[in-house]
Specification:
The chain is built from eleven helices and eight strands. It is of the alpha/beta class. The chain has an eight-stranded parallel beta sheet, with helices on both faces. α8 runs parallel beside α9 and α8 packs parallel to α11. The longest helix is centred in the N-terminal third of the chain and has 21 residues. The protein binds zinc ion (ZN). Zinc ion (ZN) binds next to loops.
């Protein structure tokens, strides 16, 4: 099936803003992904288009964020940085002050909201906002390179339209602020697969965080050990996540496709290849529901761009068997892998595999014990 109406959200304006030198977050990844796709011809045809969405208005941002926090971001940009701003996380190494920060955050927020509306109106079946996925931003707190939580804003749009929403977050970091925003709701399930908070920021996302009140059983956390490799990741997805996703039966899926879980990412410690995310997206597409995908982390820029191009192709239903043909190092701006968009198979040490497997088994067991019963699953 390659006739899905797919929209890639991007504006050249966004390429003009970047985080300060030395900050690992690189806004150029979205534009580079688009360039890769264009050169491969994966954006042609009447079913696929690039749309530059509107910037979120102040009123739209205030649906989730506190007015004083939004003011603090604006003021920080003007050089006004009182102690209150710092206590909101603004001006820290992870959330530095830079020119255009408010506009960039509002653009990312506006884009994911626009994507949600395109899905609601039927204009799109698949939307990808690679400039989104700021899952750490809280109502009045900046954290982990995130200022405005576009994911929460987009999910709110869908929930207001009475849709059942499944948020699947495969960024290597726990989707903490999206989880908190919806912790008491049962019309949205948040499911985050991430490196364990024992070894990685933000230090949350453990198996026993399952929601409260009527939201109990609707927050799902799959913490993963250092060294988690493809087969282990796919196994826990299949045994712990997929039954919950199917049973929840969402109307719309929101996905965060941060590519910092890939092996070699400078900020994390998993051992995955992008082939795993291809398989996961293919499982998600079997549900035959619209998908709003966002970007997120991914601090090896080349690997992230290549993987996002690959995942967009798969989301579009493009058969990816011949994608490697004709692609060279010049186009992908690298010389170390000329084989196309897919990663090479990675081998793990047997000893590490055993340690990972034991921990994966433990987490599968806990989720089946603690979360499955809320959904009449065993
Ligand atoms: Zn991340």
């Amino acid at each position: 099936m390659n006739d899905r109406k797919a929209v890639f959200l991007f504006s050249p304006e966004w390429d003009k803003i970047n985080y300060p030198q030395g900050c690992p977050f690189d806004t150029s990844r979205a534009g580079k992904t688009l360039t890769t796709l264009k050169s491969m011809g994966i954006l042609g045809g009447s079913h696929r288009k690039v749309v530059a969405p509107a910037v979120a208005t102040r009123a739209e941002l205030e649906r989730f964020h506190r007015p004083e926090y939004l003011d603090a971001i604006k003021n920080a940009e003007k050089g006004i940085l009182p102690p209150e701003a710092f206590s909101m996380g603004i001006g820290t190494p992870d959330c530095p002050v830079f020119k255009g920060m408010y506009d960039y955050a509002a653009m990312a927020g506006g884009a994911s909201m626009a994507g949600a509306r395109m899905i609601l109106s039927g204009e799109a079946d698949i939307v990808f906002n690679p400039s989104g996925g700021f899952h750490h931003a809280g109502p009045a707190s900046a954290s982990g390179f995130c200022y405005v939580n576009d994911v929460v804003l987009a999910a709110m749009e869908l929930l207001d339209a009475k849709k059942r929403v499944l948020f699947l977050d495969v960024d290597v970091h726990h989707g903490d602020s999206v989880q908190s925003a919806f912790y008491e709701r049962n019309d949205i399930m948040t499911l985050s697969m991430h490196e364990s908070g024992k070894t990685l920021y933000p230090g949350t996302g453990f198996e026993d965080e399952i929601g409260t009140g009527k939201g109990e059983g609707y927050s799902v956390n799959i913490p993963l050990p250092v060294g988690t490799y493809d087969a282990a990741y796919k196994r826990i997805f299949k045994e712990a996540a997929l039954p919950l996703i199917r049973k929840f039966a969402p109307d719309v899926l929101v996905m965060e496709l941060g590519m910092d879980a890939l092996s070699g990412d400078p900020l994390a410690h998993l051992h995955l290849t992008n082939n795993t995310f291809v398989d996961i997206i293919k499982e998600i597409l079997k549900l035959e529901k619209p998908v709003l995908a966002t970007g997120g982390g991914g601090y090896n820029v080349e690997a992230t761009v290549r993987s996002w191009a690959l995942l967009w192709s798969v989301l579009c239903g493009e058969d990816d068997h011949d994608m490697g043909i004709g692609l060279g190092g010049v186009m992908l701006e690298t010389t170390d892998w000329l084989g196309g968009l897919r990663d090479r198979v990675l081998i793990s040490d047997a000893g590490i595999r055993d340690t990972v497997d034991a921990d994966i088994n433990r987490v599968i067991h806990i989720i089946r014990e603690k979360v499955f019963p809320y959904h009449s699953l065993r």
